[in-house]
Structure formats: structure tokens, C-alpha cells
Amino acid sequence: MKAFSMAIMDIVLEGDPRLRQKALKIKQVDDSLRKIAADMLETMLDAPGVGLAGPQVGIMRRIAVVNLPAGYVNEDDPEIALTLINPEIVKGRGRDVGQEGCLSIPRWVGMVPRFEEIVIKAVDLDNRHFRVKADGLLARVIQHEVDHLDGILFIDRVEDKSTLFEVVDEEFDEDNFAVAD
């Protein structure tokens, strides 16, 4: 695989119609898509966030990156880094309501119901098909990113709108922000 010099991309903000469009399926992974994935990862880490989907950087293709740093939830949690091409949730079980935010809707958070556990199928950067069984935060982040690929924002999933609020500067603690993709 080629090494790429990475670039920070502009994050598309709520109100931009691209966030409400369904992203196009990717037919083949090539070096240009690998470069996009590397740039998306760099952008997400710089933001900082734990997930980023193509439409959030103006790429209307079904690609998402996820990176949960080691110890993100529990001290002994390993780092989890995934690039998901054409991800599809094939199974969901249980219900978990948790706080989410989004890099495309800065500083807004709300309580969002998601599946507790999921199985997804996707393609990796080497054109190989794979499945991932995920629960907890990883399942939440993946579902959030798949929603972006379908033109759905977390604010659309908030059932109790009273839980949606803007975090003001003096309250904002980046280290304890639940999910910022």
C-alpha cells in the first residue's frame, strides 16, 4: 500500500444539503480512495472526533472512518481503528440510549437511541469483505456514521427533544465529550 501525505479537510456543517443526501456506493477501492480515507482519518483526529463519514467532508461516497483510542471507555480498552467502505448493518439487537454529538453540528449534544449490539458488513481498503460484531460505544459510533451515509443526522434520532442542548464554552470538556464524530 502506498504512503500518502495527509491533508486536513473542511468539515461540512449542518444546513449544507450534502448532509441530507444518500452517499453513493463505491464500486472499487483504489489509491485515490485510500488517499481520501487517510485524509478523513487525519481530519477526524484533528477535529477531534471518533468517527467521520464521507458526506461530512463533501465526499458523497459510502466511506467512513472510526477510531476509538486505547482506554477510551475503560482503561484496558484497545485502540479500535476501522475504515468502512459500503458499510451495512445486517443485524441489530437491544436498545441503548446515550449522548451523542457531531462534528457537523458543533457543540450540540442529545440523547439518541441506538441498537446495543450490531453486526455490520463492509469492505476494507484492500477490497476485502469483512464483518464486525460491535457493542457499546463502537456500535453507537458505527450506527452514527452509517446514518450520515444515508443523509440522517443524530438530531433526527433524538426522541426527547428536551435532551438536545448546546454545550457552552465554560461547560465544554473535550476530554469527556461522549461522541463527537
Helices and strands, with pairings:
Elements: H1 31-46, E1 51-53, E2 63-68, E3 80-93, E4 96-102, E5 105-114, E6 117-123, E7 129-135, H2 136-149, H3 154-157, E8 165-166
Antiparallel strand pairs: 1-2, 2-3, 3-6, 4-5, 5-8, 6-7
Overall mean pLDDT? 91
Sheet bearing the most strands, described? Answer: 5 strands, antiparallel
Lateral strand order in the biggest sheet: 1-2-3-6-7
Structural classification: alpha+beta
Which stretches are low in confidence, meaning pLDDT under 50 for 5 or more residues running?
A: none
Name of the top-level CATH class: Alpha Beta
What's the total number of strands?
A: 8
Examine the coordinates and then state which fold CATH places here, giving the name of the CATH topology: Peptide Deformylase
Number of helices: 3
The helix/strand order is: HEEEEEEEHHE
- What distance lies between the first and last C-alpha atoms, to the nearest angstrom? 26 Å
Short summary of the structure?
With 181 residues, the protein is α+β, with helices and mostly antiparallel strands. The chain contains three helices and eight strands, in the order H-E-E-E-E-E-E-E-H-H-E.
